[in-house]
Amino acid sequence: MTDLAPTTEFDRREFEDELDPRDDVDATADAAFIAPVAMENDADELFAGDRGVLDPEVRRVLVRLLQRRFLLADRSRSEWAVLLENQHMIESRLHDLFVRLVVDHDRGVAYKEQVRSDELEIPILLRDEAYSRAETLVLVHLRTVYQRETTAGEGSARVDIEEIEQTALTYFTAADGDTARRQKTIRGAVNRLRQDGILDEESEGRYRISPLVEIVLSSPRLNELKDWLEERSQAGEAGALDLDAEESDEAAADDFDADGTEVIR
User: What would the 3-class secondary structure string for 4-73 be?
Assistant: First the structure.
């Protein structure tokens, strides 16, 4: 049996030095201090001081949703795919702003709505942006055609610019100027609706009506507008669309208002 040599005072001090708890404190302090990383060496930082957590493509979709009235699947396929893959995260960011995300998978459209409440103080970020009178007159015709064609079992609905002009012109009066001026107003309305994705120009002067028209102008609102226009027509006012009227967009929307969508103030 081998005897173990007694521990000397020097050995004991050496052993205690190895277990000095101050070493752990120093190590923790060193670990807590992280040297700053240059921006070009930080793969997660997109710009100086970036504290965002979303990937770049998700951030872009979030901005697009805030910028535009609608995000359309058939016009922005890559952004639509990113939206669906990250819908929960994007919704969370919008909810932080009191904004609701609506995703209509059947029609392939996403849009935003301002959250409003009588019980909670909510700062309003979005404002209603109503269509002009001429734009709404064109919308009424487009919605009517779309409803008629889809009810008949057609997979899509199409219109020509001449058909749109012929119908919309019936709501103008002689006081609105010559035919050329009225046509210019109508074509401007058509162009606006094309930019919003409600119309897709398949060939010159030939348009496909997007299912988006059902969201912009619901059936109840369509019927209200058609009844209102019929009443004015029977009264001999022919719609009384005065192009020279000195009124704000909000005042114009009181008479000719689609369901509208909301945009950043």
Answer: CCCCCHHHHHHHHHHCCCHHHHHHHHHHHCCCCCCHHHCCCCCCCCCCCCCCHHHHHHHHHHHHCCCEEC
